[in-house]
Amino acid sequence: MDGTTVPVAVHAGRWNGDPAELTLTEGVMLHWFAPEDLPRLRMSRSTLDLVLRHAAEAEPPPPPPATAARAAHGTTVPHIIGVHLYLEDADGRVLLGLRHPESAYAGGVHHFLAGHCERESAVACLVREAAEEAGLVIDPADVEFAHAVHLTDTPQAQPRLQLVFRARHWQGTPEVLEPDRCVGWDWWHPDDLPEPIVPYARAAIGSIRAGVPYSELGWE
Predict the structure, then answer these.
(1) Considering only 31-45, 97-111, 116-130, which range has the smallest mean pLDDT?
(2) Tell me, what's the pLDDT at 58?
(3) From residue 106, how far is each of 18, 25, 52 by CA, in Å?
(4) Measured over all CA atoms, what is the biggest interatomic distance in the chain, rounded to whole angstroms?
């Protein structure tokens, strides 16, 4: 670390292929990530800043004509799948985490323990995220579907299907294992939820208590 600097060239390109179909000669995994999801990954700060700066400055590529035509009819727009953990303690309180103020999504806001599905089932994602984020051990057999929220933040935003699962049993006490994403876990009574809280999380909790399995937000 003698202060020497060297130029680094970064080349940007566009490709719409499937990383899973590539034959890898180096590395262990390739995967598409949306810019807003990058802060969740373990990567150097300089690389993160570089990619986010490029994403903010770059113009989004136009969709292929056939895709654009079908998207106009609402038939081929991909949806992001989110998985959320609904836990109740013996007093009926719900587990929520306070997201890190610098989180790309909902910074400084209370939310479920949650994650995006990768190449895995929704329940497998839930079990993995619970272990990685809070040190909780959950048997998939103890997981049951509780609620689904189908939402879009704006008419142009990518739609999201947020799946909420209840775990009847678990092992461990919630602890902060990813402090860059969550600064603390706490239990809250459904009638006295904290502020601020992610709106669809509040809506989901109310629907679960009412026995309603499905809701929609943001659709015109």
Answers:
(1) 31-45
(2) 67
(3) 30, 38, 17
(4) 63
Phi, psi dihedrals of residue 44, rounded to the nearest 5°: -65, 145
Q: CB of 100 within 8 A of CB of 181? A: yes
Instruction: Give this prediction's pTM.
Output: 0.68
> What count of other Cβ atoms lies within 10 Å of the Cβ of residue 106?
17
For 105, the token pair is: 């999504």
Asked if 24 and 30 count as a contact pair (C-beta separation under 8 A), the reply is: yes
The pair of three-digit structure tokens given for residue 152, joined into one six-digit string: 């879009």
Q: How far apart are CA 184 and CA 204, in angstroms?
A: 21
Determine the Cα–Cα distance for residues 191 and 107; give it in Å rounded to an integer: 23
Which run of H or of E encompasses 81?
strand 80-86
Extract the tokens encoding 2.
């003698």
The amino acid that residue 124 corresponds to is: A
Q: How confident is the model at residue 18 (pLDDT cuts 50, 70, 90)?
A: low
Which helix (DSSP H) or strand (DSSP E) does residue 165 occupy? strand 160-167
d(CA 73, CA 57): 29
Calculate the CA 122 to chain-centre distance.
12
Q: Exposure of 51 by Cβ count < 10 A (0-12 exposed, 13-18 middle, 19+ buried)?
A: middle
Distance CA 124, CA 117 (A): 9
Collapse the DSSP code of 180 into the 3-class scheme (helix H, G, I; strand E, B; otherwise coil) and give the result: coil
